[in-house]
């Protein structure tokens, strides 16, 4: 039976295999602030991280001071049978309430997790609103009536570890999302692409002023599309901001503006229009010349985001992109991370692999003849094998 909350658009229901969860009672457009909620219980910092002996005493003290009702609420969260009943439950606290405390919210803490993957990715995200002292749950995709609202507990790509093991260790549960239940080869491809992305990002700024900026922008675009395919769509903001900086360093206001607009719109969706992130991006999108190192690398015309990137960023429904075809899978799997990174950066990736090259008439004729010959050969092989 759904339990209504004080928020009319959502309800808490039982979700098979996950305990309780939050569902939408009506259509929720992308970018909507679904809930803004003050934590019902606040505990000292470290509550859900590494707990030292000092920390544990502080937490135990805070727990013993809870009202009976709050203690019952704390107890209502799941805890794996092999875990300590207090430490296991502390994992449900969102890292909010400023720098020195963690909070357990009545409704937001009932949102379940789904991993970021090409099969499925979260439709919501939460963020701590410092000035309101409230945790916000925001729709990052369109959410339909009856659909479960899910966030990712592990959306931080730079600390990425293969999903199931990480979730088991950090949160004490077996995740059965579509990403975790993919065949091992598909998960391996994702792991390799994410590791390559994580190697690409820290090197990016050191390339500014050293390499052809148009090539750098091309690499950024490729990486944006790859992380989007992998479901880490928040990364778009950071990479669009990098592209903005590069264009601003070269004094190209038009291109810089287009990149920063993407960043601004992502921040609006994830953090809201009152956030500092959004306001800074809005200011720079309006006047790229205010960038602190404007035109420091000399004046050069660069490039704004491609149609493909814009389409991805602004399409209404983020449909799950097609998975790579067999030849690409084996090509990626067989490559070590570093060479895959180079392959991705040079554009020889799954995107270019999926776009068939344009052939002239004579090339088409040759290709048809080759295909015919191959078909004949393979049918004769089958006959031999039989
Ligand atoms: C923050 S709580 C979410 C609300 C919780 N389901 C409840 O009943 O109160 C996190 C816990 O929910 C469960 N959970 C969340 N996402 C899950 C998933 N994808 N697969 C399995 N269990 C999940 C796990 O028990 C996890 O420790």
Automatic annotation (TrEMBL):
Pfam families cross-referenced by the UniProt entry? SET (PF00856)
Ranges for the region named Disordered are: 343-386
Q: Which spans does this entry mark as compositional bias, Basic residues? A: 361-372
InterPro entries in UniProt = SET_dom, SET_dom_sf, SET_domain_protein
The organism of origin for this protein: Mycena maculata
Identify the residues that the record assigns to the SET domain, covering every copy.
8-154
What protein name does the entry list?
SET domain-containing protein
